[in-house]
Design goal:
three-stranded antiparallel β-sheet; mainly alpha
Length: 364
């Protein structure tokens, strides 16, 4: 299996976008640190970035054929781990959700690594036989497998992560040539399933009620940050609404901190970097010489871009609040490592010649 040692210009531009977002996240984390804690915050965030860089390097050097071959095994192992977290004392519960494993001072969120495995599984399944997306029966089998895989995530509960992967799956199948007639059958069924899920999970319903009934308190405070920041912001370290005024300000609502200290110029810079990331990500996908690389790189671009778009829309009140970090900017080791690993695997898949293999998860 051969891979070029050189990166395409579009790939280098993609690296630049991710690097700029990561550096911005580090600067925001340090500038918003409480008095006397900047050094600790710098060390902690830098350790997250180092772990993400290591995960990216691993993904970039994994044999793409081995990734495809063992993705099912890894998915089963992760599925079992997620169930063990629910039924034993292994899982750590916070904010009424059992999503974390506590290892000393470090919290890991294993479910985020489904964002790595599912794009690999789906891209490999379609690449083996692109005609699968032309028929309803194989797609329904794939949807059934997807919901079995996502069952422990829904039980945590984490409805938002499942929604992201559903959106990614739809985009990937459209990339692969999903016909309109199949879309007409699939979308209503997914909408019904989504409505049932919303009414089955109280926390999801309460967030939608809060959003539809007025502006939630978190969003009101984020909007205050946009107003106080104006066009140019108060300057790094001079924000007036940090230190707890904005809930989850270093994770889900980090964009509000950027608006406070860097102003709309900073917000537009973040938006532009994600737009550039999307453009160059899809360009890298198009330059791949085989279906699997095209689909996986396209899926990876959609995973990251969709998450960024939802986060930014959520902060300004355009969508319901969901515990969703801003990729590469928010603090959080699990999210950074998972997305970096996925990006490394996807970029490597576009540079390597892939041998045709049997379909994953036994769907014929």
């Amino acid at each position: 299996m051969a891979a070029s040692n050189k990166f395409m210009p579009a790939t280098l531009a993609l690296f630049a976008c991710v690097g700029a977002l990561a550096v911005l996240g580090l600067l925001v984390a340090v500038s918003s640190a409480p008095p006397g804690e900047a050094g600790d915050v710098l060390l902690r965030h830098s350790s997250f970035l180092a772990a993400a860089a290591a995960a990216f390097a691993v993904g970039l050097n994994l044999n793409p054929q081995h990734v495809r071959n063992y993705s099912v095994h890894a998915s089963i192992a992760l599925w079992l781990l997620l169930f063990l977290m629910l039924v034993t004392g292994l899982g750590h519960t916070a904010n009424a959700a059992t999503r974390w494993i506590q290892v000393g001072p470090v919290s890991l969120q294993p479910s985020l690594f489904l964002q790595v495995l599912w794009p690999v599984l789906l891209s490999s399944w379609i690449a083996k036989d692109p005609l699968r997306v032309q028929s309803v029966s194989p797609i329904f089998k794939m949807i059934g497998f997807f919901f079995v895989l996502m069952l422990p995530v829904l039980l945590q509960p984490d409805f938002g992560s499942v929604v992201i992967l559903i959106a990614v799956s739809g985009c990937v199948m459209l990339f692969a040539g999903l016909p309109f007639r199949v879309l007409l059958v699939s979308v209503p069924l997914l909408l019904v399933a989504g409505a049932l899920a919303v009414f089955s999970f109280d926390h999801v319903l309460s967030r939608i009620d809060s959003w539809s009934g007025g502006v939630p308190e978190q969003v009101m405070r984020a909007q205050d940050a946009f107003r106080y920041g104006g066009w140019f912001g108060a300057g790094p370290g001079n924000g007036v609404l940090k230190f707890g005024y904005i809930p989850e300000s270093t994770t889900d609502f980090v964009l509000a901190l950027i608006a406070d200290e860097w102003g709309m110029i900073g917000v537009l810079m973040v938006w532009s970097l994600f737009m550039a990331f999307t453009f160059f990500g899809l360009r890298v996908a198009r330059q791949s010489s085989h279906r699997y690389g095209i689909l996986l790189m396209g899926a990876t671009t959609v995973v990251i871009s969709f998450q960024a778009a939802y986060n930014m829309a959520m902060v300004v009140g355009a969508l319901p609040v969901k515990g969703l970090p801003l990729p590469f900017v928010s603090r959080g080791g699990s999210s950074l490592m998972a997305l970096a690993l996925l990006l490394g695997i996807a970029i490597n898949s576009t540079r390597s010649r892939i041998r045709t293999q049997s379909a994953p998860f036994g769907i014929k």
